[in-house]
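Inputs:
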Amino acid sequence: QQQVKQSPQSLIVQKGGISIINCAYENTAFDYFPWYQQFPGKGPALLIAIRPDVSEKKEGRFTISFNKSAKQFSLHIMDSQPGDSATYFCAASAINMDSNYQLIWGAGTKLIIKP
Amino acid sequence: ETGVTQSPTHLIKTRGQQVTLRCSSQSGHNTVSWYQQALGQGPQFIFQYYREEENGRGNFPPRFSGLQFPNYSSELNVNALELDDSALYLCASSAGWASGTSEGYEQYFGPGTRLTVT
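Outputs:
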């Protein structure tokens, strides 16, 4: 019930296209859903995050869509660029889990943007 | 505003040895979380410190221990190193949920320490 399932494992998108990565969760106590971008040899960088009281959040070319009833959320990267090539992780957290808010991570999606 | 820093960048140790990794949190953050990331996998939560107290622990044995100092910097100590401990160790700082804002949830990561155990 603590898992976050992420798909696809890898994704190849043409430059200018839309990249879509999906995540699903079981624990209805989760109340914070961030996406992280990680380049090889670097730490994850927070891209965008959403709380369950909204269905969509947009920041620049990055959009999170959130479906509370389906327990799913997704990351959309519009106008994908070669510089977006990285590994993307979804995660989830719940403040009530042992009074801390550890992040539970998906397995990651390796995104390659072809020029 | 200074970001999260970690030291050392890389470390090679022998099985059975002990190691200490260090993390300086972002200015204004009082909560530090440590994660282990094996190659090709997502990070796994080790533990979290809030105002110098351990505030939650993942599924890691007691030979993984930590400290947080009054300036909110932190150390991760691993005793009796095993080959499977080879990984990228990540430190993340946050303002803490007690900040009362959604931003308190946001965890900002350092570049990590690559530990190799031979």
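Remarks. DSSP finds no helices and eleven strands in chain A. The mean pLDDT of chain A is 92.
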